[in-house]
């Protein structure tokens, strides 16, 4: 038995046919949703950091409720950054867990069409290509694109995203509180550094 066969998942057997089209579309939609969710939290993080307080103050004076909430978020920045980090982490882990296996199984039937039946070869190439594909989508569409959009238009992006971010914060407040307090304890107890905000 080769080393390659040892490191591949023992339970995996290459598939030789594709799922029905609707299942494929559904799985692709899940992958797209997870990439989009990751991008949402990245955009939230960079927009609330980059938006200027003076811009928000002007809109608050005009009675803009979204600007008022964005200003509140900036006043509790480290807590809401913990929320964005929780969202990014969960979305990224879910994308890797769901996406790589699905893309690998989407690639594997092509080897059967090419009359290639080596399990080790099919699995290793399929998993590698799936990893590259998921990584590309994650970095480009889930990280870089939303980051540059938020940096380029922080006011517009923050005003659009503060409300859904607030809903996420409310729903997952216990987990966010634990992360927030844990990071503060790490900064204060071990690194002797004061939290930046909140």
Structure, described:
The protein has eight helices and no strands. The protein is mainly alpha-helical and 198 residues long. It has a domain at 20-98 and 146-190. α2 packs parallel to α6, α2 (21-50) crosses α7 and α6 (119-152) crosses α7. The relative contact order is 0.17.
Mean pLDDT: 86
For the record, give the distance between the C-alpha atoms at the N and C termini, rounded to a whole number.
57 Å
Which percent range fits the helix content? over 70%
Instruction: Report the uncertain regions.
Output: 1-11
Strand content: under 5%
Element pattern in H and E? HHHHHHHH
Largest sheet: none
Strand pairing plus helix content: what structural class? mainly alpha
**Apparent shape:** elongated
Total strands: the figure is 0
Q: Rg, please?
A: 22 Å
Number of H/I helices: 8
Keywords summarizing the entry:
single chain, mainly alpha
How do the strands and helices of this protein lay out in sequence?
Blueprint: H1 3-7, H2 21-50, H3 53-61, H4 65-75, H5 77-113, H6 119-152, H7 154-171, H8 173-190
Give me a quick take on this structure.
The protein has 198 residues and is mainly alpha-helical.
